[in-house]
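Progress note, project year one: complex with zinc ion.
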Amino acid sequence: MAHTRLWGGIEAGGTKINCAIATASTTSSRSSRSPSGPALPQILAETRIATTTPAETIAQIVHFFQVYQQRVGPLETIGLASFGPVDLHLSSPTYGYVLDTPKPGWRHIDLLGGLGRSLQLPIVLDTDVNAAALGEHRWGAAQGLDTFLYLTVGTGIGGGAMVNGKLLHGLLHPEMGHILLRQDVSQDPFPGGCPFHGNCLEGLASGSAIAARWGKPADQLPPEHPAWALEAEYLAQAIATFTFTLSPERIILGGGIMHQQHLFPLVHRLARAKLETYLAVPQVLEQIDRYIVPPLLGDQAGILGAIALAQEGSGG
Ligand code: ZN
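Model obtained:
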């Protein structure tokens, strides 16, 4: 293993944190799902840690990487794909801090510094959704594209974007879950669940919103339940807004809610209807099912994205 290149990945979410160590794959382990693209990295070790207090959680992450490095050898870099909001500005005094999160105890916590001081390794930071976008760009559904979105629809909703070949940061980073939508309260009187905005996209269409509106978690609602047509309508509105704003070449919809496969055809139909009268391009008119797609990396998009961040940071 002396010359094996090793990278670490941290997918830090509000309820759990996935950590992994990976090496470059040989071509023999090339992914059968993307036969023309580069081989997926090989995951050598993985662990899942509950997100509790910052001190306890950071100590557990550090322990995982230290034990592995003592046994096998040093990592080159670690990619940290963090829940937000997080400060991504290198020149900022609070670079790497978790900002105004509603997660108790995590407001203004120096996540990057806490890890970096203990691990003494270069750590490449981005949002969890930007990292997932990067993973899909390297190995998944966005190979060969340079402007696309990755939207996760789970307990919350967030979006990452690559624009002209670069992950989009801007003022802070995109907060695509918090755009405002048009709500027909005669059809949907639910006030919305976002603590900041009420009926924003996340407030109306996240897994939490679905559970609060219908009194049952999404995975207990059958495909014919009216929840799904409503969900598709909100996602289609958001997709139209993002498409008109950023002109993505593809939109990847991941996250737990999108495990409901029957949701995709509904979203395709409604999104096409909102786009086609103005955006008469083949991707919309003829190939909407190739324009709005699930992540090719599935639920591995997040952790593989963190590994992709690490590899970018080491020129690998
Ligand atoms: Zn909101």
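Residues 178, 194, 196-197, 200, 202-203 surround zinc ion (CB under 6 Å).
Residues 6-131+299-313 form a domain with the Nucleotidyltransferase; domain 5 fold (CATH 3.30.420.40).
No further modelling is planned for this target in the current period.
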